[in-house]
Amino acid sequence: MKLRYITCSDPREHNSVKSILDLATLPHVEIAVQCHPSKMSDGMPRNIWFTELLKQAKQLWHTNLAIHINQEWADSICTKGIIPQPLLEWMQIEKTHNHPLIQRVQLNMSKTTAENINPQKLAEIIKQFSHQEFILQYNDKTKQAVSKLNKTGCKFSLLFDASGGNGIQPTTWKKPVYKKHLQGYSGGLSPENVIQNLDKIAKVVPKDASIWIDAEGKLKSQNLFDEKPVFDADKAKRYIQRAKLWQLAR
Questions:
Q1: Staple partner for 236: which of 8, 129, 165, 202, CB 3.0–4.6 Å?
Q2: Is the dihedral of CA 105, 108, 113, 116 positive or negative?
Q3: 129 neighbors 115 (Cβ within 8 angstroms)
Q4: Contact between residue 119 and residue 82 where contact means Cβ atoms under 8 Å apart
Q5: Do 69 and 36 meet the contact criterion of CB atoms below 8 Å apart?
Q6: According to the model, what pLDDT value does residue 103 have?
């Protein structure tokens, strides 16, 4: 089993752009920013921070950047086939010709969005942005929507996340759902347990599989300036280092 990406999710405006780009330029490391209108609309601090992040990333030789789209923005894309303007502008930024700066786009559907998915319109968007990889979460609330999109024949990837973004480690990891769609794994991963969980994932995927892992909640720490725990670059580094140690030992 090969690790395509070691994804670190949900850095925010409290993180320095430099500290995040230092992670994003490491081999096989991906930085994923959560995008939703309640925090990322024009003029908001996180929008300004992310715009600066993209500006600096464009000047670097190599970065792996992703966006995870939530709330009304995910609903607009999945049910109406309309990409909100801020997202459209970010997705259209190219590092070089036909090589987007944001390489992967994850659509986090609510239960209501999944129930009302328009697979044909979503497939049209995926085909329009063919140089980017689209990801859908796979869990009980989204599996029917994923099945409908699969029937269109379009290309997409899956993130197995049984807790639906709540950071709960599953009792068992699921083998790849569809042979033609790449699959990643998320749910309760941390610097402390990533090696043990990679061992478990390796038992359910083919030996030649190329997968990715995605950690978010367990990469956060409490600080003096925020009510809730926030992304901790040092924790992210430990998570990355241990995942890479696992890969080297294979």
A1: 8
A2: positive
A3: no
A4: no
A5: yes
A6: 97
Cα–Cα–Cα angle for 171, 172, 176, nearest 5°?
150
pLDDT in tens, 34-75: 999 999 999 999 999 999 999 999 999 899 999 999 999 999
At residue 105, the 3 state secondary structure works out as strand
The answer to whether 133 touches 159, Cβ cutoff 8 Å, is no
The closest of 163, 247, 236, 239 to 194, measured between CA atoms, is 239
3-state helix, strand, coil in the chain (%, to 5): 35, 20, 40
Give pTM, 2 decimals.
0.95
**Alpha carbons 183 and 160: distance in angstroms, whole number:** 7
> Residue 25: how many CB atoms within 10 A of its CB?
15
pLDDT of residue 18: 97
Q: Which two tokens stand for residue 201?
A: 């994932």
**How many angstroms separate the Cα of 205 from the Cα of each of 1, 103, 212, 228, 249?**
7, 24, 12, 35, 17
* CA 241 from centroid of its chain's CA atoms: 19
pLDDT tens readout for residues 114-149: 999 999 999 999 999 999 999 999 999 999 999 999
